[in-house]
Amino acid sequence: MSLFNQEVTLSEDYVYHYTSLEVAIENILFEGRLRFSPFIQTNDPRESKDWNVSITHTNGIEISTESLLEIVEKFNRKLKKDIKILCMTDEDKNSYNQINYGGRGFAHSRMWAQYASNHRGVCLVFDKRELHHTIITELDRLKQIYFGRVDYNSYYPINVDDYEAFNINQKDMISKEIDELLNDHVTRYYKTLYLRKAPDWRDENEFRWVIQSSQDYEYVSIDSSLRAVILGVETPREYDSVFSEFQEKYKIEVSRMHWYNGNPTPLPAF
Predict the structure, then answer these.
(1) What pLDDT is attached to residue 99?
(2) What is the reported pLDDT for 171?
(3) Fewer Cβ within 10 Å of end Cβ, the chain: N or C?
(4) pLDDT digit string (tens) for 181-208?
C-alpha cells in the first residue's frame, strides 16, 4: 500500500526531511547520504549561541580562575560546538486525520515554505526504524548516539534537571577529568540540552538524532531507509526527468504536492 494512501495507518513510522531542490538533487540524492550538521548552525538562538554555565562551589575546595574559565570554554565547545544533529519532522499521531492527511509529516504548508524554498523544494520520506539502524551501524565508532522527539516547553526551569543541565559541581571537577565530566554530563542531561525547544517551534514536530564528533560533519547512507520523494507544488516540471532517474535508482515513490482549497494532497508526480 502506498504510504500516501489516505487509508494508511501510522503503524509504520516515517520521518520527513524538507530541503531545497538543489540540496536534494546535488547532495542527498546524488551522493546517497544525509548529513549531520553542527548544532550551532540551527536557527534557534538557544542552540546557536554560547550557553551561560554556573559553577556550584564546595566549601574547602579551591579551584583557580584559569580552571573555571577552562571548564566554561570546554562546556560550550564539547557540549555545543562538537555536537552534530540530524533533524526530521515526525508524524503527529495526535492530529492524524484520514480525510485530509492531518498529522502527516509531509502536510505542513509552513514547513514547505520555510525549509523547502517556498514550495519549490522537496520533502524526503524515510523509514524511521531503518534510518535509526543505519545511524547506529555506520556511526558505531562514536561513544553515544542520542535520539528522540523534541519537547516543546518553556525555556524557564521547570524541574531540577533544567537547572543542573547548565551547572557544574565544583567537587566533580576534582574527582573527574574534564572530558569525563562533560561526557557524563551529556549522558545525564541530553534531553534538556538537545531535545528541548520553546513552544514557538512546536509545529515543526521535530525528531532528532544527536552525536558528539570533532569532525565538521558526519554522514549516513540513505539506500535502505529512503521511501519516497515528494516534490513541492512549485517544483519546476523540467526536473521531472531527474527525479524519475532517482525513482529508478532508489526504487521509491515520487509524488507531487497539490493543495485543493488548502488541503494537502500528494499525487504521483509522473
Answers:
(1) 60
(2) 77
(3) N
(4) 888 999 999 999 999 999 999 989 999 9
User: Measured in Å, how far apart are the chain's first and last C-alpha atoms?
Assistant: 18
Q: Say if CB 205 and CB 92 are below 8 A apart.
A: yes
Rg (CA), the chain: 21
| Residue of 148, 18, 10 lying closest to 89 (CA atoms) | 18
Amino acid identity of 22?
E
Q: Is 216 exposed, middle or buried (0-12, 13-18, 19+ CB in 10 A)?
A: exposed
**Are 257 and 143 in contact, with CB atoms under 8 Å apart?**
no
Average pLDDT of the chain, as a whole number: 88
pTM for this model (two decimals): 0.89
The size of the chain, in residues, is: 270
Cell 559553577 belongs to residue: 55
* Backbone phi, psi, residue 101, to 5°: 65, 20
Per-position DSSP letters for 62-129, written without gaps between them: ---HHHHHHHHHHHHIIIIITEEEEEEEEP-GGG-BTTTTBT-TT--HHHHHHHTTTTTSEEEEEEHH
b/e string for 104-129 if b means 16 or more Cβ within 10 A? bbbbbeebbeebbbeebbbbbbbbbe
